[in-house]
């Protein structure tokens, strides 16, 4: 039998090489299509909604600052009233009803007007009050309370009684003796309801109840302040505090 020639083997080799090249091309083409095919989309993460704003909580330190400023205003007003009373001349005697003769001018009296000396109790009371105020401003509260208490004992209805009672209560408050403070402020409101310090005393009493965690009494004092002194700065402050104390719906 005749063996195939060399050219036959050459054709077979070329055919096998071409077949191998086609398979390689098909493999890489399939891989390219698979890589180009997009997969299922992953949903993008949604941003978290911003937290809802919470109602502002009243800052006790800012409340105290407002009250201290109000107290300083009251002290200035009291000082102005005292100075005005000291410089106002006493009213003269009523006219006798007689008409002066025509052509005659009245001659001034050669005698100086009589000066009524101040009562000793008033002078002593003023000294006690002034000493108590000096001690209070120096933050020597126990010593200040002693002077104010002595003044109130000697002159319970004296011209400085409301002020002495207020500083007496506030000296307790400054030492965080809130139970004693609220009692003194309550006495001021009951005994001197027309004093310009009465609204401040009621607001201070409400703060004392707040420090004692007596919420019902705190709100009751604020409502009383709004009812009795609605036009005062303390009354308007009490209205704001009552709104803040209402439960959020």
TrEMBL record:
Residues 46-58 have a biased composition (Pro residues). TPR repeats lie at residues 162-195. InterPro entries: TPR-like_helical_dom_sf, TPR_rpt. Residues 34-65, 82-123 are annotated as: Disordered. The keyword Ribonucleoprotein does not apply. Residues 34-45 have a biased composition (Low complexity). Pfam families: TPR_16, TPR_6. Keywords: TPR repeat. This is Tetratricopeptide repeat protein. The lineage of its organism: Bacteria, Pseudomonadati, Thermodesulfobacteriota, Desulfobaccia, Desulfobaccales.
């Amino acid at each position: 039998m005749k063996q195939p020639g060399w050219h036959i083997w050459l054709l077979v080799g070329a055919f096998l090489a071409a077949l191998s090249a086609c398979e390689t091309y098909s493999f890489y083409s399939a891989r390219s299509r698979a890589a180009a095919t997009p997969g299922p989309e992953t949903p993008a993460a949604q941003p978290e909604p911003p937290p809802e704003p919470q109602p502002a909580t009243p800052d006790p330190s800012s409340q105290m600052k407002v009250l201290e400023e109000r107290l300083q205003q009251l002290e200035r007003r009291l000082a102005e009233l005292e100075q005005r009373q000291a410089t106002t001349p006493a009213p003269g005697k009523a006219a006798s009803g007689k008409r002066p003769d025509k052509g005659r001018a009245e001659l001034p009296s050669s005698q100086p007007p009589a000066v009524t000396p101040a009562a000793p109790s008033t002078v002593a009371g003023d000294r006690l009050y002034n000493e108590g105020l000096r001690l209070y401003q120096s933050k020597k509260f126990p010593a200040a309370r002693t002077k104010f208490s002595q003044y109130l004992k000697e002159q319970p209805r004296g011209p400085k009684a409301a002020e002495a009672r207020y500083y007496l209560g506030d000296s307790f408050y400054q030492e965080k003796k809130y139970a004693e403070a609220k009692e003194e402020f309550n006495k001021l409101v009951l005994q001197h309801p027309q004093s310009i310090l009465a609204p401040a005393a009621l607001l201070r009493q409400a703060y004392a109840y707040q420090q004692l965690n007596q919420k019902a009494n705190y709100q009751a004092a604020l409502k009383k302040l709004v009812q009795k002194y609605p036009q005062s700065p303390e009354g308007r402050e009490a209205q704001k505090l009552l709104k803040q104390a209402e439960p959020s719906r």
